[in-house]
Design brief:
The complex is a heterodimer. By secondary structure, chain A is an all-alpha fold. Chain A has one domain (3-312). Chain A is built from eleven helices and no strands. The longest helix of chain A is centred in the first third of the chain and has 32 residues, at 3-34. Chain B is 39% helix and 18% strand. In chain B, helix 7 runs antiparallel to helix 16 (510-517). In chain B, a hairpin with a 2-residue loop joins strand 9 (189-195) and strand 10. Chain B contains 16 helices and 15 strands. Chain B has three domains: 5-120; 163-205, no CATH class; 213-517, Orthogonal Bundle (Cytochrome-c3 Hydrogenase, chain B), CATH 1.10.645.10. Classes of the chains: A mainly alpha, B alpha+beta. The interface between A and B is medium-sized, with 29 and 30 residues.
Amino acid sequence: MSTDFILYLLLNTALVLLIAPLFSGLIKKVKAWTQGRQGPPLFQQYFVLVKLVKKEVIYSPNASWVMRAAPLVNMAAILVAALFVPLVFVPEPVGGIGNIILFMYLLALARFFMALAGLDAGSSFGGMGSSREMSFSAIIEPTTIIVFAALAIVFKSLDIFAMFAGSLATGTLATPTLILIGISLFIILVVETSRIPVDNPETHLELTMVHEGMLLEQSGKNLALMELSAAVKLTIMMALLINLVIPAGLALTLTTAGILLAALLFVLKGSVLAVIIGLFEASMAKKRLFQVPSLFAMAFFFSTLIIIIEVLA
Amino acid sequence: MIPSPDTTRGRVATILGSDIPADLITQGTGGEIYIRVDTPGFSRAVSQLAASQFTLIGLFGVEAFGNNPGTSVLYVFEKQDHLLVLVPEESGPLPSIARIFPTATWFERECRDGFGFEFDDAFDTRRLFLHEPYPDGFHPLKKSFVNAPITPRRNISPADEYPFRKVSGDGVYQVPVGPVHAGIIEPGHFRFSVIGETIFNLEIRMFYKHRGIEKLLEGKVPDTCMPVAEAVSGDESVANATVFCMAAEQIAGVTVPERAWYLRTILLEMERMTSHLGDQGGMLVDVGFPLGANQFFVLREEMMRANDRITGSRFLRGMIRPGGIERDVPEAVISDLAVFLARLKKRYQAGLKIVLSTTSVIDRFATTGVVSRSLILPLALSGPVARASGGTEDTRVQHPYGVYGQYIPAVRSLHDGDVLARFTVKAAEVMASLDLIERLSREMPQGPVLADFSARDGYSLALVESARGENLCWLWIKDGRVERCTFRTASFCNWQAIEHAAQDNIPPDFPVINKSMNLSYAGTDL
């Protein structure tokens, strides 16, 4: 393993952890602005995490080891998945890191443990959240596979690093395929990160919860881990979209100036995307639970279209 | 004008089709007709009333009423503008009428808790407002009970816990929600029996906030009752204060000055608008559309500030009192109000446009939480809930009080009975209230706002239309003091419709169904 790669591991993980709460804070802020509210401070997410870390953890008497392990497994899986998506610097791939299929199932592993934790405490809301999350994930999985297959066909590789490099090399901007990929990935992002119209991250109504329902029994440090991992997941999904569709500025070699520029550009592009996500969420109500698959169908349709275009072209 | 006893008797004879002696039929001061019956006569009358499509809108106990030294139970029936009160004369248990009038179930349970009065053949004999910690044999509405703190029962065994309806079968599981909820709302327990994501059955349990309001009012002179009447339900302060005053004024034979009625009506309509605006915002929050919700929440907040400017209270408290209005409202304030409401109307319409043109909102609202029209009569539903399900009744039209006889509000009735219909009916009512206030403030006469009020003895029934529907107050004054006073808010009856509305829906849609019906927990539990 080269020094470059070790540096990449440190740099990428540090950056994703550092920046993740900013993006989710920004989305909150944008949604507040659209409603004519001030909204929480931009850095509120960081304060919340610090506060939660200081608080004690309380376990339900019904909870087993799953409840204790889930936040750690969840965070670990998400952090490993984060290594698959270079934010600012694309190194030479090592081992299986960067494989898009593995990436997808790392996210699935995190979700699986989160759903187990939702069931573990024995509260009915957690169970409802878990059951809904698992139903969604069963429906979204084929869609995700098709979207990733489309990516693999377009970039002729299963490796995310190679896809980024390829996208950067061709310098593509807005070819029809990329627009379709962008839309598909955006839908995957919305579903994976439990946002409106699939789920409402801001609701206080337990009966309507999906992702939040599974977290109801979490507290203290464990809740902080869960919240942070959700923010990291959001950031890596955003990075996947950004670096495939507008990769400009992505560093291929490890130079301080290059990395700084790339980091700056990434924060900028990420912020723009966060604003778009915020506006998208504000523009509609949450879908009825059973209507959610129609959203997946759109991603499925676009990706199938890409595959047809690419295979026939 | 009070009709002569002969016509009154004639009307009763036409309805009941039986020969009840004239001296047993009396005309009340609020337009209601009291009919004293013996127990067989009672059963006959009840089936005749059911056959003629009367609704049971009230049922309450009262001690030492008329010739009966024990507990009498008064049954209030309504059909259009007819109001009949059946008073079974004999003491001792009465037959339960819950199988004929389903709305009687809660009423009878309430009466059993309050007075220890038994109903023969009742199918639901569980306690209602007295939860497990209340000791056995505790009946707070009896005169023999002195209002004082009690020693609650502790360590209640599982066998003594409230028995919910058992729902079993393949894949049925229970989701208990409440009484402590997320967010700042009142306590209530919802027991969902769910199959997958479909609500198979919902049972509600209310009455977690019993305050003893009826007992508290007893022995007070009417003037000092206002803070208590206003506290029946926080956002129905004006409606409940007005209905109490109407009952007291009818007994005393006091005519409220015209200007006072104009002002009362403005307050009643302001209260209705404030309530509807809050509901509409809440419904949009519950489907995850805060952008639309805030259009209404902002207007609601501005309404509450306007309330504060007129009355000094954001909840319009402290204005209504027996005889009229506590203090006159200056002309300048009223003309400012008209300007404010004209501006509000434009913004309200703009807000409605945003919401009703958002397909994702319509998709969530339409076909959700349907209250079928056939429930209106048996459950005595009223207000926007009934009017969104094909009901056409509005107390302001059926039993006009104050100036509603001259200013007849437009009644909007829809047939779908879903959340969208309730949203739309409320929107129409806000617009109608705006028009009404605009006309009232333009045509308001000058003059005094408070007539001399001195309590006289007697009893009376009064009805008003609150934001939630028909509110009822029955008041009995003896020796210048309240002997018995009871309220029945629209929520008491409308709550029971939610068990039907939720069926076959999915739990994530329940919050919006609940919000669209806007039921008061406090108003149900006096």
